[in-house]
Amino acid sequence: MKNKFNKKNIAGFSLLEIVIVVFIMAIGLVGVISLTTQNLQAQTVNENKLIASGLAQEGIELARNWRDNNWLDSVDWKTGMTGTFSADYLSSKYSVTGLNDNLARLKINASGFYEINSGTNSIFSRIITITDQGDYLNVVCTVRWLSVNSANTYVAETQLYGWQ
């Protein structure tokens, strides 16, 4: 009678098989970790682009508000409109030289809003450049922010007319 438990009949894994399985699992885990890291980086980039687009749109709306206030004050709609400005929703408006100007840096106030006068420095700077084109004003709002690897820029542009 043959012994069922002969060394040749015992099923098991060799050392080589175990090493191969561990290697394949390690490659899979490295792939998952790499994908997770890239996903987190993309999320930060997309979040900053979304914030920058909102800040640029707010800059365009501020210029519209200045035009509308000129109408309400019964002055020419272009009065005080041309130049390069830093501004916020609190109606603070300053002439600046460009994005590197200290007043172009936006701050986050205690309520979580971006402004230029008080709060904690954010990564964003914004300028509104308005040029007179005769029949209309060309408004360009540029938002810049610094990330770990580079400086990023978002630009929004529109034309304002004296349609009143």
In words, what does this structure look like?
There is one protein chain. The chain is of the alpha+beta class. It has one domain. The protein is built from one helix and seven strands; from the N terminus they run H-E-E-E-E-E-E-E. Strands 1, 2, 3, 4, 5, 6 and 7 form a seven-stranded antiparallel beta sheet that branches. The longest helix is centred in the first third of the chain and has 58 residues. It is rod-shaped.
Features of the shown structure:
seven-stranded antiparallel beta sheet; 1 helix; about 30% strand
Annotate the secondary structure layout.
Blueprint: H1 15-72, E1 83-87, E2 93-95, E3 105-108, E4 114-115, E5 120-132, E6 136-146, E7 151-161
Antiparallel strand pairs: 1-2, 1-5, 3-4, 3-5, 5-6, 6-7
Number of helices: 1
Give the oligomeric state of the chains in this entry, treating copies of one chain as homo and distinct chains as hetero: single chain
Q: What percent of the residues sit in helical stretches (DSSP H or I)?
A: 25-40%
Distance between the termini: 109 Å
Please compute the radius of gyration using only Cα atoms. 30 Å
Given the C-alpha coordinates, what overall shape results?
rod-shaped
Major β-sheet, in short?
7 strands, antiparallel
Helix-and-strand structural type: alpha+beta
